[in-house]
Sequence to fold (528 residues):
Amino acid sequence: MIITNIETVPGKTIVEHFGLVSGSTIRAKHVGRDLMAGLKNLVGGELKGYTQLLHESRQQALERMIEQARQLGANAVVNVRFSTSSVAQGAAELYAYGTAVHVK
Amino acid sequence: MKYTPRQPGSNVNVTPTSPLREFFLLTAGLLGMVIVIYMVLGLAVDLIVPRISTDLENKMGGLFVGSIAAKDSDSKRGTHVRSLLEDLQDRCAQLPYLFKVHICQSPTMNAAALPGGHIIVYTGLLDKVASENELAFVLAHEMGHFAHRDHLRGMGRAFVFITISTLLLGTDSSISKMLANGLNLTEMSFSRKQETRADEFALETLYCDYGHVGGATDFFKKISKAEDPGTFGHYFASHPESRQRISHLENIIRSRKFKLGKRKPLPETWRQLKD
Amino acid sequence: MNNFLFFLTLIAMGYVVGTLVEKRHYRSIHEREKKFLYLPAVTMKTVNHPDQKVMSAELVCGSAVISIDYFKRLLASLRNIFGGTVKSYESLIDRARREALIRMKEMAGDATVIVNVRIETSTIGRNANKKGVGCLEAMAYGTALTLEK
Fold:
């Protein structure tokens, strides 16, 4: 599955499109991570726990979007956008959406 | 560009899950964690509490006393109560405490023990006691609590628990509130064992001081008439049902072959001593 | 004790009624999505052949504010202790976004295609800044093009 951030897939032509596809996920941290982050607040630096958490969320959101595109019969998703929001306390919500297309 | 309208077969964004199952799993996990921490705390408290010196406890008690001492009243009967307590302590219940008795105006038929050797006796109780033995039993019961450091144990656990939950979950969390309520329940049932042990201590003290245990169960017989905890009350009453306590005491009296003798009456002017 | 029972009643009510409301909403979403299947929404900026004439272009948007029931909220706070995917909130976000998209398409009416669709989410309500979420607002907006057939 090809995923791009631009309108086209360079080097290929889009033959047909299937509309919007999206994948979202919401993950919560656990108290262990929270404690480490709290400690890190004192000294500063990268909060590796949270980076890891958001990275996993992003992966999962992308996977879900690709899965939905595959169900529609597409083989590429173009013009993908991400959106993050905090929906619940201590949980990160990640949303990826794009257009499912068939390229040749 | 050609558009082919199609719909996806399944909803990828929602995992098919049974929320009830998840709820039970998570609650079970939380309860498990709580029980483990509780037991660890229990061990820790059992290790620490005997090492808290009475000096430290007196300092802690100072925190509570301020509000109570201000309400001290009824000095005439109070003097008599204090001298009775001193007698008991000198002759039979040698405890490393300097007990301070506070009389509190209230129709409650009860007495309470606070850290630092403070005993509160409510005037409701003073009004209802019929003999010196009965009063001595109540005082010895409170002294029993101090002997076993009961008040420190209950407080210590609850305090640490609530601190942990506040740290982890924040003060507003509904889970913290649930834990606090649940703790109140367990601490009260914990203290039922403590109450029974204090009853036994009082019985021993009474026997030692008077040579018999007449009057030990009078107090409970009086409250059991007034008490009716209802179906739920058993667990939630911090004082175990008086009937159970009476029968427990009577069992001990029988097994240890304690004698029942004549009750020593209160001073004649007791009724008029109220001010 | 009364507090606890009250709490349990709220949870039970939240679970039962909340599940019913959610099912009904999903059914309505499915129906309307099928109805609007003819009108694609894409994130690309151009889908038309350069020769095709554009009759009209207008901004369309749709938004929905969905709240969640008490049971799911409790699940989320429990989940917060142990970590992992907060499954109870997934349906909330899904419903809100799909509803917003449908309303956007409703606003478009008889357009041919909606281009450059963007979706924004935010939390509003009293609890938005503190614990838990009050309600979730999803907004979808794009340009509806009516192309010459």
In short: Residues 48-72 of chain A form the longest helix (25 residues). Chain A has two helices and four strands. The domain at 2-103 of chain A is CATH 3.30.110.70 (Translation Initiation Factor IF3).
